[in-house]
């Protein structure tokens, strides 16, 4: 992988990590279009590891963007552990929801990691995920009441939205799309669901990045290319977060459905004629 390819993949990751269009799917599509080698198992593992590592750039952008909120969540959680009075506050319930919501994808990801790695190699799986899960966006928006704000979130919300995040292990689904949809189906307003989605993604994706580091820096991708792509994804990812938070304040996530369908159908056609 050369530096130009690394920069382009960093841009793709930064743009798509937080938008409900599947960053993993877009990276896989981009890698195929670039003709990057994926014939041997080592090459396949390297690209999967590379994807996991450059995601940490975008996630570190989320950490910086939400640093004040993260500090508040940690403080509320610690305060609740130390004080029975603080355990009854909305802040502690929200912090508990975040903590519980992070657990399902860690467990499922560990148990099903080999199956997930296999799926991550196939463009058809990406196309099916993009097309099929778009229906969930429509369902979630039609069912949404948006009657609940941050103060109403609790452990049950965290668990259910965390389980929704597990569906995004299928390429093409989109982690943000799954968790925002889950929030909407729980009656949570769109902006709160989006911010909660970002917080849930931070531990899981940082962990995946650390685990993928060894594979990503072998001879197929290289340390320099991986570092460059990670920095680019950080810069672009920060801008992407700011855009999405403004966008969901006035737009439905179904606005992304036509694009998802277009890319999904395009991939299926490309696979069929290749």
Structure, described:
This protein is mainly alpha-helical and 274 residues long. It has helices at residues 3-16, 23-34, 41-65, 67-82, 90-111, 113-119, 123-143, 155-167, 175-185, 190-216, 223-248, 257-273.
Largest sheet: none
Total DSSP E strands? 0
Number of helices: 12
Please state roughly what percent of the residues sit in beta strands, choosing from under 5%, 5-15%, 15-25%, 25-35%, 35-45% or over 45%: under 5%
Topology:
Blueprint: H1 3-16, H2 23-34, H3 41-65, H4 67-82, H5 90-111, H6 113-119, H7 123-143, H8 155-167, H9 175-185, H10 190-216, H11 223-248, H12 257-273
Tags for this entry?
274 residues, mainly alpha, 12 helices
In short:
With 274 residues, the chain is mainly alpha-helical.
């Amino acid at each position: 992988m050369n530096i130009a390819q690394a920069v382009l993949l960093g841009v793709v990751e930064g743009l798509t990590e937080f938008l409900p269009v599947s960053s993993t799917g877009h990276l896989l599509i981009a890698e195929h279009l670039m003709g990057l080698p994926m014939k041997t198992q080592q090459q396949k593992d390297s690209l999967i590891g590379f994807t996991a590592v450059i995601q940490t750039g975008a996630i570190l952008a989320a950490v910086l963007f939400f640093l004040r909120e993260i500090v508040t969540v940690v403080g509320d959680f610690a305060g609740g552990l130390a004080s029975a009075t603080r355990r009854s506050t909305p802040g502690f319930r929200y912090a508990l929801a975040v903590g519980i919501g992070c657990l399902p994808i860690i467990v499922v990801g560990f148990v099903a990691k080999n199956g997930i790695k296999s799926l991550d190699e196939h463009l058809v799986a990406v196309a099916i995920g993009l097309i099929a899960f778009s229906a969930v966006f429509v369902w979630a928006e039609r069912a949404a009441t948006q009657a609940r704000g941050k103060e109403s979130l609790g452990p049950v919300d965290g668990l259910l939205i965390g389980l929704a995040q597990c569906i995004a292990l299928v390429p093409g689904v989109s982690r943000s799309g799954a968790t925002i949809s889950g929030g909407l189906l729980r009656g949570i307003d769109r902006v709160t669901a989006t911010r909660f989605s970002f917080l849930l993604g931070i531990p899981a994706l940082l962990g995946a990045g650390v685990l993928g580091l060894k594979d990503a820096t072998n001879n197929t991708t290289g340390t320099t290319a991986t570092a460059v792509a990670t920095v680019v994804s950080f810069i672009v990812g920060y801008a992407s977060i700011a855009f999405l938070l403004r966008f969901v304040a006035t737009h439905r996530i179904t606005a992304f459905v036509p694009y998802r369908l277009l890319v999904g159908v395009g991939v299926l056609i490309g696979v069929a004629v290749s």
